[in-house]
Automatic annotation (TrEMBL):
Residues 1-22 form the signal peptide. This is DUF1924 domain-containing protein. The keyword tRNA-binding does not apply. SUPFAM superfamilies: Cytochrome c (SSF46626).
């Protein structure tokens, strides 16, 4: 019984260590989006990312919408959804959990780009967006 408990404990430690080593980061996500876009990561633009965040676009019902509409003009501050639910800060400097899980990042880009832009964001736009948020304080 003791050997079995020790084996299970070691297996969990190995899984946890492997998961930590494989964690995504803003830099790794930017590199992936740059690769997908076929551009060097150095060509990602924080300025274009800020413009994407702040620019208002015509929403589904004709009302102007932007990322800043829910996430506030300062992405280091918490925001609110349209129904009033709290949104944790978007900037990694204020919320280190942001951009650490590629699946979550893709889920939210897909959903929010459709809501704001009425289309999916390109890989270049996603890389620019993360480049800007990585600098936001």
């Amino acid at each position: 019984m003791t050997k079995r408990v020790a084996f299970i404990g070691l297996a969990w430690l190995a899984l946890a260590a492997g998961a930590a080593a494989a964690a995504d980061s803003p830099a790794s996500l930017m590199a992936g989006y740059a690769h997908e876009a076929g551009v060097p990561v150095t060509s990602l633009s924080a300025q274009r990312g800020a413009a994407l965040y702040r620019t208002e676009h015509p929403g589904r019902n004709g009302q102007a919408v932007s990322c800043a509409g829910c996430h506030t003009s300062n992405p280091a501050q918490p925001g609110r959804t349209r129904v009033g639910k709290r949104i944790e800060p978007l900037a990694p400097a204020a919320n280190p959990q942001r951009f650490t899980d590629a699946a979550k990042v893709e889920k939210w880009f897909r959903r929010n780009c459709q809501d704001v832009l009425q289309r999916e964001c390109s890989a270049q736009e996603k890389g620019d967006f993360i480049a800007w948020l990585s600098q936001a304080r």
